Structures are given as C-alpha cells and as structure tokens.
C-alpha cells in the first residue's frame, strides 16, 4: 500500500477499530448491568442495614438506589453508540494543558479556622475546614483504569505531587469507580496516619490493598463519624451505582458526604443524578457554605446517574448551598460532550440563577467566601495561566 493510500485508509481503520472496541465494551457493560439487576431482584431486598462489608460481600447482595434508577436510559444503547462514532465533539484538549503550579499552602498545616479548597482535578479536592484537612476521591494516577496501558488518560498532570500534599487528616471516598477510587493513590496514602471514610463495602477494596482495619471507617447512608469536638462526616444518599468489574455491580455502596466543622459546612456530592432526597439532605444538614457537585460525563442516556451542569445547579439549590464548586470534569475523557462544555454550560445556568461559582485553575487554593471566581483556565493561553497564577483570575460574571 502506498503512503497516500495508507493516509487515506488510516482514519477509516481507526474508526473501525474504535467501533469494534465500543461494541465490545457496551456488550460487557450490558452484561454487567443485567447481572447487577438480577442480584437485586433475586434477593428482593435492600441491604443498607447490613452491619459489615464482609457480610454484605459474602452474601453476594447488591445495594440499591434511593429511588428507581436506570444506569442507562432504556432504548438508548444504539443511539449512544451512534453518538460516539459519529459525533464531532472535541472530547479532549487539542493542546497539552499545564503544568499548573500549586499553592504551597498544601504542604502547610490547615488554618485553625476558615474554609479553603484546592482543586487537583476531576473529583479530587483538598478541603481545609476549621483546622482539619480532607481529601476527596484522590486520584494521582495517569489513567483511571484497571490497567496502566489503556483507559482514559488525564488531560494535565496533578498540580501537586502527592507527597507535597501534607497534613491530611482524612480521605473521603464517594464510591469505587476507577476515577474515584484509585488503588495506587490509596496505597500511598495508606502509608500515612490517615483515616479513610468510605461507603459500606468499599472497605473491602482497601483491605485487599493492605490498608489496616483501624484506618477504615465504613458508613451506610445517614451514618456519621464525629472527629474531635467540632467536626463530623455523614454519608448521605446518592443516585448512582458501583463496580470495578463485570460481576461486582452494586456490591459496594455509593454516597455523597456532609462535612462539617466548627463554623463551616460542605456538601460533597460524589457521583449521582438528581433526586428529591437531596432536599432532605439540605433540610437536615444545610445550608452549606460550599457544594462540590459533578458537572461532567453527562449524556441524555445517563441522566439518572449523573447531574450534568443543569442538574448540578438544581441540586445545589436543593441542598441549600451558597457557593458551587463544579467537579468531575476537565480531567478525563469519560463522555461524548466537548470537554469544555460542562464548564461553559454551568456558567450560563449559574448566571441565570444568580448563583456564585468557584472555578479556580487546578492547584490554586481559594479561601471562601471568595466567589464568584471563574478563572477560565480551560481556555489555556499562557497569559491566562500567568494571570491566574498571580491570583488575578481573568473573568468573573459578576464584574
Ligand atoms: Fe461513578
């Protein structure tokens, strides 16, 4: 084959390989979904009152959602495949992003008062709240995948090395999907004097990775842990699913989290679609100084298990949030939309609702109530990053 012919056929071959790969993946997912549903129906019970994750795993029982939930919209399978194959969205950055500088305060002890946050990427956020430091869904690996060589690769390096992030008191995990529970990161954090706060069943993963039992706190929904006199973590319901393979669908629980300190309150939504129970969370534990809510990886077929920009704004109001910090976007290619679309859309929805957004560049530590703050780091010109590094974020819709 001549060079010209090779060039002509290469995109078609790549398209064919990609299409084959997707069909295989969707088949696996479909089998997995069916398997998961069978587990729920076979046992015909909710198991959120089980006492230990070992018991739950031994009995091969699945957890259930707070309301009936489709992981993918019935009948949407082939339209999703078509969207994947035919769409012309720019699903990942064209040019390399970063490196982003980190605020050196991540290596210093958290202040005894106040609320500071630093977005590392995806759902990984450093939260300094009234003297304690928490880390949500930490992932420092290059890919969110069960294997090193394939799978979604991050758009930019973490702005801080994991060893730079010191004085972490607790790690908060929302569920066991690869982009939220990263084995390599957990193993390294497990070498430190850190407590892992996880939904019921997720502790089984941590134990298998060598994390000692004494460092693991497993929670059912509405269960909480007090930390000292001033802090409390409460696992709250979420509308999502779990599983890291074909046969473990919904074998571990998924959760959102309420994080309270002496004077501040944060709601970490994890992954999950909107449901009316969010209002109950707001009534019981709100108002929140800040919510961390997912805006990426949305698609019409996945509307019940992901918020997306529009429902993130709705969820923020439901839980009685003050400042919204969007997460779960801009880091991995996990959906079919243009990679910047979640950011641009949430800005418009927030503007319409008069809602303050906090969207600093990765690695910048922000002290609340500094909002609205929209850095537009994703527009990525060098001069923008320099402005942001100097603390002069270049755009705010309030100005
Ligand atoms: Fe997830």
Shape: globular
By CATH, the superfamily comes out as Ribonuclease Z/Hydroxyacylglutathione hydrolase-like
In the CATH scheme, what's the topology name?
Answer: Metallo-beta-lactamase, Chain A
Oligomer: single chain
Order of helices and strands: HHHEEEEHEHEEEEEHEHEHEEEH
* Ligand set: fe (ii) ion
Please tell me how large the radius of gyration is.
Answer: 21 Å
Strand order of the largest sheet: 6-5-4-3-2-1-14
Unreliably modeled segments: 1-7, 19-51, 389-399
Please state the average pLDDT score.
84
Q: How many helical elements?
A: 9
Structural class call reads: alpha/beta
CATH architecture name: 4-Layer Sandwich
Report on this model:
The structure is a single chain. With 399 residues, this protein is α/β, with parallel strands linked by helices. Helices cover 28% and strands 18% of the residues. A hairpin with a 2-residue loop joins strand 2 and strand 3 (132-136). The longest helix is centred in the N-terminal third of the chain and has 41 residues, at 3-43. It is globular, with a radius of gyration of 21 Å. The termini are far apart. The model is unreliable at 1-7, 19-51 and 389-399 (pLDDT under 50). The structure holds fe (ii) ion. Residues 175, 177, 240, 271 line the site of fe (ii) ion. The site of fe (ii) ion has 4 residues, from loops.
């Amino acid at each position: 084959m001549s060079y010209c012919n090779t060039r002509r056929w290469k995109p078609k071959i790549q398209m064919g390989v990609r299409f084959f790969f997707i069909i295989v993946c969707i088949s696996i997912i479909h089998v997995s979904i069916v398997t998961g549903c069978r587990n729920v129906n076979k046992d015909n019970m909710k198991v959120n009152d089980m006492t230990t994750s070992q018991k739950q795993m031994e009995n091969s029982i699945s957890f259930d959602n707070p309301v009936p939930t489709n992981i993918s919209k019935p009948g949407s399978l082939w339209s999703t495949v078509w969207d994947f194959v035919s769409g012309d969205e720019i699903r990942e950055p064209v040019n390399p992003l970063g490196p982003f500088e980190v605020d050196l305060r991540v290596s210093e002890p958290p202040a005894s008062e106040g609320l500071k946050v630093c977005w590392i990427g995806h759902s990984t956020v450093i939260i300094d709240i009234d003297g304690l430091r928490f880390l949500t869904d930490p992932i420092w690996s290059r890919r969110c995948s069960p294997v090193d060589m394939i799978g979604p690769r991050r758009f930019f390096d973490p702005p801080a090395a994991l060893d730079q992030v010191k004085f972490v008191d607790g790690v908060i995990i929302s569920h066991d999907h690869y982009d939220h529970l990263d084995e390599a990161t957990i193993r390294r954090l497990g070498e430190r004097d850190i407590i892992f706060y996880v939904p019921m069943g997720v502790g089984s993963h941590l134990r298998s990775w060598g994390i000692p039992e004494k460092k693991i706190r497993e929670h059912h929904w509405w269960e909480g842990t007090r930390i000292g006199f001033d802090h409390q973590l409460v696992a709250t319901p979420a509308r999502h699913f779990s599983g890291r393979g074909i046969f473990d669908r919904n074998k571990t629980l998924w959760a959102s989290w309420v994080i309270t300190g002496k004077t501040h309150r944060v709601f970490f939504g994890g992954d999950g679609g909107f449901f009316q129970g969010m209002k109950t969370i707001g009534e019981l534990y709100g108002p929140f100084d800040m919510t961390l809510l997912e805006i990426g990886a949305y698609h019409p077929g996945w509307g019940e298990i992901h918020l997306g920009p529009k429902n993130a704004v709705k969820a923020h109001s439901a839980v009685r949030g003050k400042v919204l910090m969007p997460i779960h976007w801009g880091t991995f290619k996990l959906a079919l939309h243009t990679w910047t679309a979640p950011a641009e859309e949430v800005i418009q929805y927030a503007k319409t609702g008069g809602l303050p957004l906090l969207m600093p560049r990765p690695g910048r530590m922000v002290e609340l109530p500094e909002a609205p703050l929209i850095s537009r780091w994703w527009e990525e010109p060098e001069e923008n990053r320099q402005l942001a590094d100097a603390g002069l974020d270049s755009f705010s819709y309030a100005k």
